[in-house]
Structures are given as C-alpha cells and as structure tokens.
Amino acid sequence: MSATITQGFLDHKIFSIVSEVAAEKGVRAFVIGGYVRDCFLGRPSKDIDIVVEGSGIELAEAVGERVHSHVSVFKNFGTAMLKFKGIEVEFVGARKESYRRDSRKPIVEDGTLEDDQLRRDFTINAMAFSLQKEDFGALVDPFGGIRDLAAGIIRTPLDPDTTYSDDPLRMVRAIRFATKLSTDTQAFTIVPESLESIRRNKERMSILSKERIVEELNKILVTPKPSIGFRLLDETGLLDYILPQLSKLKGVETVEGKGHKENFSHTLEVLDNVAELEVKAIEAGQLKDYVFEDGVETVKVRTEPNVWLRWAALLHDIAKPATKRYDPSLGWTFHGHEVVGSKWIPKIFQELKMPLNEKMKYVRKLVFLHLRPIALVTDEVTDSAVRRLLFDAGNDIDDLMLLCNADITSKNPRKVARLHSNFELVKSKLVEVEAKDAIRNFKNPITGEYVMEVFGIEPCNTIGTIKEAVKEAILEGEIENTFEAADVLMRTKAAELGLYPVK
Asked: In the predicted model, is pLDDT for residue 465 greater than 90?
C-alpha cells in the first residue's frame, strides 16, 4: 500500500539532495528501516538507511561529491556510508536474498524495492519513504508495518519459519526490538505464531557466531527494562543455548516448609533496578568513567549506560545454584556464591567470545565485591571497613554501590526502606573517609626501591612484609596515609625484623 505521510519526517537537507542526485542518475531511492519506524514512534534517529534500485555505492559517491563528504565504501557488503551535518547515511542497492540451510550468509542478487522489503526481518522495519520527486515522502508499506507499529506487535513479513531459519539471529533481534520499543505506556509483543516459530527453530542458533549473539544481548542490556528481553529469551528456550548458567537460577526448592528466594526473578529485578538507578545517576551527572588514553588516565562524566555494569548485575548471583545448601537451623544459604561466581566470570566471557581484558576484570570485581556494602549496611560501619572497601573497589566504587543498592529487594516494604536508609549512611561514610584518607586510588607511600635503598638490601620477601605492614596500618587507621607516617612505621617494622638503615 502507499500513502502520503505527515510533513516533517524528511525535512533534513540530505533527503532532498539524495532525491536530486538519484533523479540525475536515473535510479530510484528510498529511506527504509529504523529511521522510518522511529519517525512514527517520535524517537530521534541519526542513522539513515537509503536503499537504491541500482548501485548504492555509485549513488553514495555522487551524493558525497555533492555535499563534499568522505564516502566509506564496503565492497564486500555492497554498501557505502557518509556523514552529513551530524547524520550517518548508509546506501545499499536493493537486493533479494536466498539462504543455504547450513549458513546465515545469504546468496545476494540485485532486486527491486519490493524484493528488498521482503528480505527485511520485521514489518515495522520494512516500511520505506519514497524520495522520488513525483511522490516524495510517500509511505511504501506492503506488509502493514504502520498498523503493527500502532498495535505494538513484532511480526515477520514472510512466514516466520522461513525468516528465522534463513537467519536465526532474527530470533534474538525480535526479542531485542520487543524490549527496546516497549515503554510504560505501550508494550511491544511478539505475535504468538512468531514466538512458536522461535521455539521450533532454536536449534538453528548453532550456526551463529557468539559475537553476533552478544552484540544483540548488549543492546538488550542497555534498554530501560532489560528483564523483558531475558524473560522472552527464557520463554523461547534461547536462554538455555546462550547462557545456561542463568537458566539454572530458575525455580524454588522447599525443605521442611522453607523455600528460598526465586533467584532468576530476583536477578532480573536487580538488572532493572540497575538500569533505572544508572539512568537517574547519569542524568544527575553523578557517574564517572576512568579511561586510559595514550597511557594517561582521563576522567569523563558518563553519558551512556555502561553495558558492563549491566553484565555485572546479570551475573552477580550466577553461582547461587552451585553454593545452595539447606541448614535446619539457618534455612537456605548460598555462602561464598560471590567468590565462586567471580571465578566463573572468565569462563563465561570466554564461552561467549567476550573481551577478556579490563572489561571482564571489572565485571569479575563487581561480582566478587557485591555483598561487601550490604554487610556494612547490617553491621556497624567502621572507618576501617570503609577504607578496605574503597581500597578493593578503587575507581569502581560508585558502580559497586549502585549495584548493591539495586540488590536490595524484598516483598517486605519496611525491610527495603530500612536497608535503603542504612545504605545512605554507608554512602555518607564513604564520602567522609575518602575525603579524609584518600584511599580510593591508594598507592603505598613506601616502595620496594625505597626499602632497598634505606636498608641496603637486595630484592627479597622481607620487602613485601614491610610494605604489607605499612598498607595494613593505613587501612586500619593506625597511621595517616602520608609518606612521613609510613616511613616511621617502615623503620620500626624493619628493626623488628633485624634490619637497620645503612646511612
């Protein structure tokens, strides 16, 4: 079907330029996909996809010449991209595709707009705006995408078995769009026949690379309510394939009439809490990221969600099934789940082909430490305990505190209110101790080189013993975090070990 849309969606200068250049080259061009969808949803979009009945690369190069913009060409994919006044525009020739059963890489041929719309994943992503002068701005919507958008449903243009079998990544993308597009006022759902098709075709996930799956998971994690996506992954059976450790959190075991918390639901609640708290903190300018550029640490105010914080929330209780025990006097316990869970993180990252660098170490650290602030909430908050938490968390203390705050869940509102109130006291104590003792980026005032110089000794275990004694004294508050105080203690400790200055 074709209809004229309301004015305003194609006001940007780039659209009239593409229209003019396409006419000069004798090809037809259309805006397609996410930009069209987001126009109707009232969401800002800086990514524009142009499909051309002809060569997308040739049109991109001609437009680039007209607007004096560099064009990046990707010949393997038949695409080209340019930037113009803050907008990224990607060009591709209209294509029709066919697939082999053992691969998600399609056999591609030149095609028409209709062919190109047929190969799209969902009806809401198959809508196009015409850029032809005779019907500029007309909506080309052969599958009723505008109707599905209004109804809040995710549906495939073709039979879902064909769509998902051809490219199984679309199963995860369906869940990602249902999660991303849902709001407090309108939920997006996957139509029942499509959900059933995902269940039937879940084995096709085996032909996908883990990197592509994780790319979709990351996009789900940074949405305002990521639990929607993970519940759908669970309902369709995809979670068992992607992250079986998370599936094992499901269910409640009861002994002597006593059951434990349903850890899968708890994990998703914590994940949503983190998403909400992080967005609020970002809006208030309260979160900072510490990045190294050319070997120099730079502090930046966070402006986008930190996907690795979301991973830490998702995995913080991952080892509870492995550490679950029933004690008649205590009930259910999960002692040491933070230690075991932190040890699992490298393996999980490796299985999912995720980075094993500082990002993995950050998630591992947060999983390992996620109970520490909670312990401070329930016990007396001593300066020593706060110093040690600051020392162990370092620059990640704010993210750790956010995660732990999100981890306070209970069906008892009075208990939650009390814990949150105590948690604010811990946060105040952190600020107070940090201002006084500067522990967050603690560096021992006493170096190994200094110990060797003062006492005229070669490298040995004794140096580590002296440095450890200084560090512990500072963290316990026995001496100030200054070189002068540390130097006095170093000499005292060395004398106990039979060492004396050579000068």
From this structure: yes
CA 247 to CA 202: how far, in whole Å?
A: 15
DSSP string, 383-417: HHHHHHHHHHHGGGHHHHHHHHHHT---S-HHHHH
Tokens for 323? 């550490």
Please check whether residue 117 is in contact with residue 145, taking contact to mean a CB–CB distance below 8 angstroms.
Answer: no
Q: What is the CATH number of the domain that holds 39?
A: 3.30.460.10
Dihedral sign computed on CA atoms, order 170, 172, 173, 175? positive
Angle of CA points 85, 12, 33, to nearest 5°: 100
Query: How many structural domains compose the chain?
Result: 4
Q: How far apart are CA 138 and CA 7, in angstroms?
A: 10
CA-based angle 250:256:258, to the nearest 5? 45
In a domain, 254, yes or no: no
Give residue-wise pLDDT tens across range 14-34: 999 999 999 999 999 999 999
Give the residues across from 167 on adjacent strands: none
Do both 56 and 169 map to the same domain? Answer: no
Q: Is the pLDDT confidence value at 73 over 60?
A: yes
How far is residue 494's CA from residue 478's CA, in Å, rounded to a whole number? 17
Domain extent for 470: 448-496
Q: Report helix, strand or coil for 260.
A: coil
Q: For position 217, which CATH number holds?
A: 1.10.110.30
Contacts 24+ apart (CB under 8 A), 116-120: 116/32, 116/51, 117/32, 117/142, 117/143, 117/157, 118/157, 118/158, 119/95, 120/32, 120/33, 120/157
The burial of 299, by beta-carbon neighbours within 10 Å (0-12 exposed, 13-18 middle, 19 or more buried), is given as exposed
**Token duo for residue 250:** 């499901």
The per-residue b/e assignment along 470-501, b for 16 or more CB within 10 angstroms, e otherwise, is bbebbbebebebeeebbeebbeebbeeeebee
Query: What pTM was computed for the model?
Result: 0.86
**H or E, element range at 56:** helix 56-67
Contact 269, 409 (CB under 8 A): yes
pLDDT tens-digit profile of 176-185? 999 999 999 9
Q: Which tokens sit at 311?
A: 């991973």
430 and 461 assigned to the same domain? no
Cβ neighbour number for residue 428 with a 10 Å cutoff: 11
Backbone angles phi, psi at 152, to 5 degrees: 70, 45
* Chain Cα centroid distance, residue 445: 37
Spatial distance between the Cα atoms of 337 and 349, rounded to a whole number of angstroms: 18
In-domain check, residue 202: yes
Angle at 127 between CA 122 and CA 132, to 5 degrees: 155
